[in-house]
């Protein structure tokens, strides 16, 4: 009979040879495709509403992000995405410029309060 115990940060699992050599009894359950919030839709497209993108597909750099991410997603280059460097440079520049303007606006708002 198998069992597991925790010692500090580690888990120690004890099992028998029989259990290790017999076929698994675990059944994989397919999730309902309507409940999937993944990056890829069931049709194989990019899900721009995926929470995993953390809002990158919206906002001031959305178009450059989408361009870079789409390029990487469909890239067949070796290594993958090596043909997307220019798109990622544009996205990076956009985020820097956006960050700079946000900081200017934030600083100006703070100056107005003083």
TrEMBL record:
- Where, subcellularly, is it found? Mitochondrion
Q: What is the lineage of its organism?
A: Eukaryota, Metazoa, Placozoa, Uniplacotomia, Trichoplacea
A single cellular component GO annotation: mitochondrial intermembrane space
The processes (GO biological process) annotated in the record are: protein import into mitochondrial intermembrane space; protein maturation
Recorded protein name is CHCH domain-containing protein
Main localization of the protein?
mitochondrion
Q: Which organism is it from?
A: Trichoplax adhaerens (Trichoplax reptans)
Keywords, A to Z, come to: Disulfide bond, Mitochondrion, Oxidoreductase, Protein transport, Redox-active center, Translocation, Transport
Q: Which GO terms describe its molecular function?
A: protein-disulfide reductase activity
């Amino acid at each position: 009979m198998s069992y597991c115990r925790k010692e500090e940060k580690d888990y120690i699992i004890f099992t028998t040879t029989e259990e290790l050599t017999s076929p698994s009894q675990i059944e994989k359950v397919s999730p309902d495709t309507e409940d999937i919030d993944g990056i890829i839709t069931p049709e194989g497209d990019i899900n721009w509403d995926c929470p995993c993108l953390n809002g990158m597909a919206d906002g001031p750099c959305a178009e450059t992000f989408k361009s870079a991410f789409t390029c990487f997603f469909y890239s067949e280059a070796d290594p993958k995405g090596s043909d997307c460097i220019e798109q990622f440079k544009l996205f990076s520049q956009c985020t820097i410029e956006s960050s700079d303007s946000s900081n200017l606006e934030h600083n100006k708002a703070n100056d107005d309060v003083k």
